[in-house]
Design a protein that fits this description.
Blueprint: E1 3-4, H1 5-8, E2 14-24, E3 29-33, E4 35-36, E5 50-52, E6 55-63, E7 66-71, E8 80-85, H2 87-111, E9 115-120, E10 125-129, H3 135-150, E11 156-158, H4 162-165, E12 182-185, E13 189-192, E14 207-215, E15 218-225, H5 226-247, H6 254-286, E16 294-297, H7 303-314, E17 321-327, E18 331-337, H8 343-354, E19 356-361, E20 364-369, H9 373-382
Parallel strand pairs: 1-4, 16-17
Antiparallel strand pairs: 2-3, 2-8, 3-7, 5-6, 5-8, 6-7, 9-10, 10-15, 11-12, 12-13, 14-15, 17-18, 18-20, 19-20
Helix pairs in contact: 2-3, 5-6, 6-7
Length: 386
């Protein structure tokens, strides 16, 4: 069996090992070693990547006690190679995973909630808990978590004997059989875990709760730690600086500036809506009553105004009333209504003539058209439905 070096030294990023097996797989080769520092996927944490000699290690999995390294080329069985992990990636993952233990241990100790889900994604960690936490509780957890980092507490990982294990109140998401590996942070957490961790909490660095949302009767937290948290804070700081520049307000006043901008937008929307209705009244008044069809083109009308105009024009025609907004270059959006014809029956014929698609109710349909304005006008003047 492969010796698991990541259990004894999580900071071991280079090592020597002998290839014990190499066989071709689906997308490369499956390599086994007599010893490895590559952590296989497990416990919510992705596998390490790196290299073994000239081969690139793309993924690592444990299958029935065998640790399989997925490589991009074969390696010679019996030969000794140098293994090298992507150290920055491994260390960031350890920062995040150890930070998760700190947060989960504090939540369990203070509020009794269990960690019922954990995933370390490319963007952040998601952590699910069995109860809800309010903003004040989350602020307290975040502060205490960062105080635990400042205290630089030792992080111990070990396999206790069966007799010792029986008396230890450790956290675990599921019932475990056989040897159980525990990770301890004194005064904070004791949890079963197979993943590599930092040696002291000070290595974790900043712990930042990014978001909290209700999830299956509990709460789901999005969290980042260490350099990942630092980079996320930098991104948000840059965004805040850019927004403050766009709004011409100090950075600490971006909320007030945004609220002002939204109020101005709402006021403008109300004015535009009022002007649109005045335009609708004017356009409707311009149309003489007819036994035929009425077709109006106006690029500036929104859907609400177009629908209102169609409703008014339907009273002035014996056929159908159509309003088109858009352009020949970008295409047209249409709303067509009639008091006299079941338009839903004729929708396919209409869309064929308009080179478009759409549908709706018997008295009104809407959709898109690719035909030119000239072609649509000619069609509207000549077609008779019913």
């Amino acid at each position: 069996m492969t010796e698991k070096l990541y259990y004894t030294d999580s900071h071991l990023f280079t090592f020597e090992a002998v290839v014990t097996d190499c066989r071709e797989g689906k997308d490369g080769w499956l390599v086994e070693l007599d010893r490895t520092a590559f952590f296989p996927e497990g416990g919510g944490q992705s596998a390490d990547t790196g290299s073994i000699g000239p081969a690139r290690v793309r993924d690592v999995h444990e299958r029935e006690g065998h640790i399989l390294h997925y490589t991009d080329r074969p390696l010679t069985v019996g030969e000794c190679y140098s293994g090298k992990l992507d150290a920055e990636q491994r260390h960031r993952r350890m920062q995040n995973h150890s930070g998760e233990h700190i947060v989960s241990g504090l939540i369990h100790g203070l509020y009794g909630f269990e960690n019922v889900g954990f995933h370390m994604g490319a963007e952040c960690m998601s952590m699910d808990y069995s109860g809800e936490l309010d903003a004040g509780q989350l602020e307290k957890i975040e502060r205490l978590a960062n105080e635990a980092v400042r205290a630089n507490l030792p992080v111990r990982a070990w396999f206790p004997e069966e007799a010792e294990l029986a008396h230890l109140p450790y956290r675990s998401k599921k019932e475990l059989e056989g040897a159980v590996r525990l990770v301890s942070i004194p005064g904070i957490d004791l949890c079963a875990c197979c993943a590599p961790h930092v040696s002291f909490t000070g290595e974790v660095g900043l712990i930042k709760i990014l978001n909290a949302e209700r999830h299956r009767g509990g709460v789901r937290l999005s969290v980042l730690c260490g350099l990942d948290a630092l980079e996320e804070c930098r991104k948000r700081q840059e965004s805040a600086a850019a927004i403050s520049a766009l709004l011409s307000v100090p950075r600490d006043a971006v909320v007030t500036g945004t609220e002002r901008l939204l109020a101005e937008r709402d006021s403008l929307k109300e004015r535009v809506a009022a002007l649109s209705m005045r335009l609708v009244e004017s356009l409707a008044a311009e149309q003489a009553e007819t036994e035929g069809n009425i077709c109006v083109f106006n690029p500036g009308l929104d859907e609400v105004a177009s629908r209102e105009l169609v409703n008014r024009l339907m009273e002035r025609c014996g056929g159908f009333a159509a309003v088109f907004t858009g352009s020949d270059e970008g295409g047209w959006r249409y709303i067509i209504g009639s008091r006299h014809v079941d338009l839903r029956i004729h929708a396919r014929t209409l869309n064929t003539a308009l080179q478009g698609r759409g549908g709706g109710r018997p008295e009104m349909i809407q959709g898109q058209a690719a035909a030119s304005e000239a072609a649509i006008r000619t069609w509207a003047e000549t077609v008779r439905l019913g």
